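Researcher: Structure prediction, please.
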Amino acid sequence: MDLNTVLDVRDARRREPWRPGDAWLGGGTYLFSEPQPHLRRLVDLSRMGWPPLSWQPDGDLDIAATCTITELSRFGRSLPATAAPLIEQCCRAFLASFKIWNMATVGGNLCNALPAGPVISLAAALDATVLLRGQDGATRRLPVTDFIRGAGVKDLREGELLRCVRVPARSLTLRTAFRQASLYGLGRSGALVAGTRDPQDGSFTVMVSAATTRPFRLWFALPPTAAALREAIDTAVRPDEWFDDIHGLPDWRRHMALRLAEEIRRELTTASPQEVSR
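Model: Predicted structure follows.
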């Protein structure tokens, strides 16, 4: 779609004062999908030269805001880590054409803050943080579960840029499980639930998204009982935080989230083949 109110496109490498009507341009798959009458200038990030994925000295993984879904998916398929399957599973939850996959970015998926955003689900499940950079160069780091505050609502200040997502090294060693539900065979996620089990201390987490207005990550020192898991989810998620749109009513989303969470609990409390062989 043409954005006929945009008067200028600026290279983000050229530092200029932020002004009303500015917006960061990553892949543009959302920006150009519908009218944006409030925009006057786009600040293009495509030439920043950030490596899509990079390892830190301590083993943490940084995913650049400009990393595309295609690049993230390809990386996940080749990564020799226990948690690697979750990367591809969440990418596949982004039901879009190859053209969208080749342009849509990790930063854009997070900053849109849509409940069904699969990068949000992935990052929340792996206890990731986002690095935000202000116009004055100051930075701050937030857990993804704090960055996303609601449907379309995020903790992003005027002119602030999401630079990258950091996945802790330990998260990549976790055993994972994934479930997704939709009203249609190729429809948007109505509920997406991911779980992890830490092989070092036996702790268990479950992350509920898509069914809710924001991602919820619940941690347990030991795997909970079915009743305790259900109670924890119902305590954490207020009735008005179950999402409501044409892709699913709140009652159905809650029902599916609880059902999928219990499936994940059972899967991750069963010994893995590696544990059985030891």
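Model: The first strand starts at residue 8 and ends at 11.
Researcher: Thanks, that helps.
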